[in-house]
Amino acid sequence: MHEITISTNDKPKLLSQLTSLLSEIGLNIQEAHAFSTVDSYSLDVFVVNNWEPEDTERLRSMLVKEIPKIEKKAQSESHAVYPVVEQDQIGISLVSNHMNIPADSIDVWEIDAYQLLFEKKIATGSSGDLYKGTFCSQDVAIKVLRGEHLDDKLQREFSQEVLIMRKVRHKNIVQFIGSCTRPPSLCIVTEFMSGGSMYDFLHKQKGSLNLQSLLRVAIDVSKGMNCLHQNHIIHRDLKSANLLMDENGVVKVADFGVARVQDQTGVMTAETGTYRWMAPEVIDHELYDHKADVFSFGIVLWELLTGELPYEHLSPLQAAVGVLQQGLRPSIPSHSHPELADLLKRCWQREPFLRPEFSEILELLQQLERTVADERDDKQKGKSPRRAVTTIRRERR
């Protein structure tokens, strides 16, 4: 493990920006502590792993290079007057092989239920309800398990969800704030995603995405899923309803109720997930691994492309039988970008080993995004002179 201490001028959202940076580098954050002074000085301390101890100096060099970019980006986006911190003004210290010894037995993630204020019910499920509320003046989502459903199976799933959400930190994964783990008050508290789900946007609001927006959403999802898989976590229920948007339109992976840490054998069993998005090996109760999430991502990508419900003319069970026994897949629109269509087909392969990893999917989508942006710029440059000529001709007439 490493302990990273970053000292710089304080500014809004500094901690979240530094957290995102460390996650993007590939670090797994175990602890984060932020301190600030009345004269606008900030000290942020992170305990991280997932980095080779003998490679500490390279990590330090990378942070020294990347942190000023955060300052410059924040200044350009907000037009604020915060000074851009130069490299020699940033103090960064790292301690290798940090041993994390708790000072006491208090669980920092445990929330007193009396500190939660419930505002309104957002959704109702088979075993619990979702509320919008506040915790320490922050808008939060509160997932509450109803007392009459608290059997052993549900309590195990609740414990697993808390364990997984505590394990991962990423800008494209809904942020875990805390939980109440003492029955009968069992609840999970996360950041509130004011933009709602991609499912509601696509199917209820009848929203549509142009290619550029589609790629942006797909890249967000791929980043979040790549982080999960790097931490050996299989989501097992990836679908548009479990993709939420914040107030800035950033999409984050949510709902880890059936997610699991992949065991040492690399395979899992049992029929878990939602039929319309479920991989054939999961439907058929075969052994499966993280590539089941890749299949589900292919269905999500098709949703983003069409705005339609997968196999909408079939019942969920009919769709599952078609996928398993007949090789049924949704029809890819003829107007789809060829590279996007090819990615869909690869994600839908019957054999899991033929499906790409999310690291490869992310790279392909980012490259396609750059290509589409270049094509758009070229098209705009090509049209501009023609518009000018048309105007001149009209004036002459």
TrEMBL record:
Chain positions covered by the region annotation Disordered: 373-397
Q: Which UniProt keywords apply?
A: ATP-binding, Kinase, Nucleotide-binding, Serine/threonine-protein kinase, Transferase
CDD domains, per the entry: STKc_MAP3K-like
Say if the entry is tagged with keyword Transferase.
Answer: yes
Name the top EC class.
Answer: transferase
Task: Identify its protein family.
Answer: Belongs to the protein kinase superfamily. TKL Ser/Thr protein kinase family. RAF subfamily.
Name of this chain's protein = non-specific serine/threonine protein kinase
